[in-house]
Amino acid sequence: MPSSDLGLFLRQLLRDPTAISAMAPSSKGLARAITSALSPATGPVAEFGPGTGVFTRAILDRGVAPADLTLFELNPAFCTSLRQQFPGVRVINAGAQSVGDHCQGLGAIISGLPLLSFPADLCAAIFASAVQALRADGAIHQFTYGPKPPLPEHIRADLGLTVTPGPRIWLNLPPARVYTYRRG
Question: Do 161 and 127 form a contact (C-beta atoms < 8 A)?
Fold first, then answer.
């Protein structure tokens, strides 16, 4: 991670720790794990909560074209930085729950949102909009620091989603696990 990204992360963390909900930026190992299913054939991809762009870089490194990538970020300072770092990538300064208003036919969604700190109704709104925006064979790749899938079971059931655990990434601060959600 470039030092300017770390500086931006730390400034935003100090400015509003509850909005960042992370102790440190995600590691390159977590970025590789959460994007491992992506390729140029994935088609359009959305990313929720890109922050400084660690996952964004990994998405593009997997061969997703910049024109096929849409980022949803609430923090205006992160949005400005993302637009400068990733020309051609669409950056939307809005919540992930609006993805269905901006995107359709997504092959994948990569999410760095801290779902464990969100109220259940917000998680439901985000995932309902995500399901609406995905192709039938699309997937949502979400990581969490917790010991179980971060989307509550009743919301998964209401949306008809199945969940598959992925690898635990020990070399992340704190260690994290990737989960993949698909229509059942």
Answer: yes
pLDDT in tens, 1-46: 554 454 544 444 445 554 445 555 689 999 999 999 999 999 999 9
Cβ(181)–Cβ(139) below 8 Å:
yes
Domain of residue 32 covers 3-183
Residue 165: cis peptide before it, omega within 30 degrees of 0:
no
For the chain, how many structural domains are there in total? 1
Q: What is the identity of the amino acid at 30?
A: L
- CA distances 5 to 53, 78, 118, 130, 132, Å, are 8, 9, 25, 28, 32
The answer to whether 56 and 69 are in contact (CB under 8 A) is: yes
- Please give the model's pTM, rounded to 2 decimal places: 0.88
